[in-house]
Amino acid sequence: MKIYTGRGDEGQTDLRDMSRVSKASPRIEAYGTVDEVNALVGRVRPTGHDDVDDHLREIQNHLHVVQADFANPDPDEGDPVVCEEHVEQLEDWMDSYDEELEPLESFILPGGGDAGARLHHARTVCRRAERRAVALEADEDINDSAVTYLNRLSDALFVLGRVVNQRDGVPEESPTY
């Protein structure tokens, strides 16, 4: 199978239902930015922490579901869609990792060790993906759970960044004003 088709040469692409849309459409912006988050999460692994790596692998698979969800303007039963269980899984992981962390008393600067800094970077792009999804949702019907998932994922990436930095012995820094 060839990777290139030439079908996108005129600035259009196919959605899951084979309808054609501009590559600049809000739908493509939304799932394209989710793809960017997925690539950044992939750049973090391996962190050197098996539990974190396992969760990041699952997150990458979830992000593929988000992309499929956003690429499908009219999902049929059995099509991949984000559901409340995906969101709950992130919340469970965060609750577990939070037990390792000192409570936040101020904002922290994004950064730290290599894995921690990459997780913070992924978090910021996840926030952008969420904004793109909200913009799409203003014009088209999309799965609310997918938007919620992106919101919760940015929180999870923040917590994972803190956990990895702590485990790696990298102290958090607060901003100075």
The percent range for strand residues is under 5%
Assign the CATH architecture.
Up-down Bundle
Anisotropy-based shape: elongated
The CATH topology is given as Hypothetical Protein Ta1238, Chain: A
**Approximately how much helix is present in the residues?**
55-70%
**Number of alpha- plus pi-helical segments:** 5
Q: What is the CATH class designation?
A: Mainly Alpha
Rg, rounded, reads 18 Å
Mean pLDDT figure: 94
The overall strand count is 2
Q: Return the string of H and E elements.
A: EEHHHHH
Topology:
Layout: E1 12-14, E2 20-22, H1 26-44, H2 50-70, H3 84-98, H4 114-139, H5 144-167
Antiparallel strand pairs: 1-2
Helix pairs in contact: 1-2, 1-4, 2-5, 3-5, 4-5
